[in-house]
Amino acid sequence: MKLIINATNVHQGGGRTLLLALLAATSGPAVALVDHRLTLPVTLPPTLRIIPVRSTLVSRFMAEKSLPDLCEPDDVLLCFGNLPPLFQTTARTFVYLQNRYLTARRSLNGLAWQVRLRVMVERLWLRNCLRGATVMVQSASVAEEVRTSLGRDAMVAPFAPQFDAPDLDPPREYDYLYAASGEGHKNHRRLVEAWEKLAELGHFPSLRLTLDESRDFQLLNWVKQRVAKGSLRITNASVEPEAMPDLYGRSKALIYPSLFESFGLPLVEAQRAGLDIVAAERDYVRDLVVPIQTFDPESSLSIARALLRHSFQDMALQDVPSANAFLAVLLESR
């Protein structure tokens, strides 16, 4: 028996972090089909065979076509990139579903047309090729979404890489950290707008972002314009996964405004690092952690108020007048 991991469309973000941990944990005969852009560690288990696949339609199709020949009846096939095998295999098949654009019919508005097209194709692929595969997800809320949308039960099977907690003694450089890539659902724009609202009230907490300077350049340009306009204390630099413990050690709290996640790995890492967590009031958050403050991620004002409660003071409650007082003001204004 051998383990076959099909991960030809995983090479960045949280998926990359989890895939590298998975590859390092293999024991016994194993084969992994991976994106050729994936940077692999110097040492991997000697029984693991890596098959790099170029990120072209032809190369990925040929990789899918090769899967039935790689699989034998006693093998286990783990499809780690959300999609079941395109062609029937004899192996026992598991599909690790991590993309919530695929688990439900979410709006694709705001995504580039190429991304919208890819998601639509992948939705069809997922629904028509699951066959007898076992669906695996990372949280109970995603399992419920799979039941509702796909009509399938899902095995809840999260895992996270080994994480070395940072030294908590050095002074913290950042008030808040948002460790996330720049996709629209990560909600960076509302987060920056919340920082603008705090500035209007005379509060200027520091915020560290981890956007990729080349892939997220449009979003970064927008952030830089707002920072310059409002004198906001927001900085950015991309970070390799192995450097994340140090970054948590230099941060006081994690802010997490993402609209949806299949598995918010930074939430788990921040909790392990002992950071306060200020996060969206969403099921994916409470699947994993208990945040110290929460907010409506679709409201920059709600985000700002949560930050005020956490770091400064609550906004003054409005004194709502009685009906008598209201009429008195109304009549006096004639």
Please give the structural blueprint.
Layout: E1 3-7, H1 13-25, E2 30-35, E3 48-53, H2 57-70, E4 76-79, E5 92-96, H3 100-103, H4 113-129, E6 134-137, H5 140-150, E7 154-156, E8 174-178, H6 188-200, E9 207-209, H7 217-230, E10 234-236, H8 244-249, E11 251-256, H9 265-272, E12 276-280, H10 283-286, E13 293-295, H11 300-311, H12 323-332
Parallel strand pairs: 1-2, 1-4, 2-3, 4-5, 5-6, 6-7, 8-9, 8-11, 9-10, 11-12, 12-13
Helix pairs in contact: 6-7, 6-11
For this entry, give a set of tags:
334 residues; alpha/beta; Rossmann fold; 7-stranded parallel beta sheet; 6-stranded parallel beta sheet; 12 helices; 13 strands
Q: Explain this structure to me?
A:
It is a single chain. With 334 residues, this protein is of the alpha/beta class. The protein folds into two domains: 3-156, Rossmann fold, CATH 3.40.50; 174-311, Glycogen Phosphorylase B (Rossmann fold, 3-Layer(aba) Sandwich). It is 38% helix and 17% strand. It contains twelve helices and 13 strands. The chain is globular, with a radius of gyration of 23 Å. The protein starts with a strand and ends with a helix. The mean pLDDT is 89.
